[in-house]
Amino acid sequence: MEKQWLQWAKELQAISQSGLAYSKNEFDIERFQRIREISVEIMSEYTQISNTKIRSLFANETGYQTPKIDVRAVIFNNNKILMVKEKKDNKWSLPGGYADIDLSVSENAKKESMEEAGAVVSPKRIIAVLDRNKYVDDDYPYSIYKIFVECDYIEGEYINNIETCEAEFFDSDNLPQLSLGRNTKEQIEMCFKAREKELLEPIFD
């Protein structure tokens, strides 16, 4: 469950961002700027991160605020799941990341699989669409919808890249240390269970 202070900070940030985007009156703009500053101050107070850095990460967008989209490719081969080791934290995740504009969900899954794991895949079906912050308790400032896409594995060979340092298939009972902001153990287990179902009703929450 997301902490109350974080909910307030995110709501204030969203209100201020919309207000700054659509307000014409200079006094209203000034008020919304102050609301945005308050949201930054709340985040800084509870995370011990400087106002400047919080502002650049948390209060850096314009227009109506919407959730970000994170596409994760779920790739099986011989009943093992493909994972990549992230350079940022040396922990493991499903290939994926923020969706690129002008690419569909399927195209993003194919792109991330190739870039991060060197895997050629054919997207097959959506397993789940989940709200990241309902499953990870780490005071993350953004709202993110995570789309898990099951893909058929065609072929692959890991290629060195700027985001990952390894790619490997794992059994369900021998998972590596997970990069929890990207995927949890329960989500990986969800993917293995989906694999067993010929007819799948996607999970969403």
From TrEMBL:
Q: Identify the residues that the record assigns to the Nudix hydrolase domain, covering every copy.
A: 66-194
Q: Which InterPro entries match?
A: NUDIX_hydrolase-like_dom_sf, NUDIX_hydrolase_dom, UDP-X_N
Q: Which GO terms describe its molecular function?
A: hydrolase activity
Which keywords does this Swiss-Prot/TrEMBL entry list? Hydrolase
User: Which is a Pfam family this sequence falls into?
Assistant: Nudix_N
Q: What is this protein called?
A: NUDIX hydrolase
Which coenzyme or cofactor does it need? Mg(2+)
Look up and give the organism this protein is from: Vallitalea guaymasensis
